[in-house]
Amino acid sequence: MNRRLHRNSVVLIHGIFDTHRVFDDMASYLRSHGWQVHSLDLIPNNGDKGLDKLAEQVANYIALSFTPTETLDLVGFSMGGVVSRYYVQRLGGIKRIQRLVNISAPNHGTAIAYFPQNISGKQMRPRSQFLRDLNRDVAMLEKINYTYIWTPFDLMIVPPTSSKMPVGEEVILPVGLHPWMLTDSRCIESVAAALSQPLVGKGKIGSSIHSECNC
């Protein structure tokens, strides 16, 4: 990896019931390879506040932590993947985020979200109005480097293919469990690779797809 390459600061966005500590292994790896890594705790983390409101916390954190002209990269895990997308697509993040990486995000919902009866749970259900609205202008993500990483063995994103997107670069990894995505060396290295990609501007829908799983 070329350490002389300019690296944007990276902001990590955790999932439901998590805190920023779930990124400890990934953050340590990225820092050792030259990135400035930042993270925040979404409050509350149990789904009692809407994903749009959590995205406002991300927007506020970025506004307070960085200069207005500084470009950034964003990594979102699980629920945090949808929160990060909302920030980029709805709250002006598209103007300053250059690379967005989603890890095991319920981009089209998850059946597990039928169990929580709170607002975020309802927003993350398959075919929810929230996700339909967000996915309507998904082509906006072609303006940045967008990568989505998922595992076909995910028991939290049901079905696992809900993480798939019609834009960006796809990475499929044979990781056994949802939370292991943040500690698996292949996933961490894939995130670093995505954050190292030269900026290419707009691409073709569904382009640059690659897989590391023969399932």
Short summary:
The chain is α/β, with parallel strands linked by helices and 215 residues long. 28% of the residues lie in helices and 14% in strands.
Mind explaining what this structure looks like?
The chain has 215 residues and is an alpha/beta fold. It has one domain (9-196): Rossmann fold (3-Layer(aba) Sandwich). 28% of the residues lie in helices and 14% in strands. The protein is built from 6 helices and 6 strands, in the order βαβαβαβααββα. It has a 6-stranded parallel β-sheet, with helices on both faces. Strand 3, helix 3 and strand 4 (97-103) form a beta-alpha-beta unit. Helix 2 crosses helix 3 (79-90). The longest helix has 15 residues, at 51-65. It is globular. It starts with 8 loop residues before the first strand and ends in a 19-residue tail after the last helix.
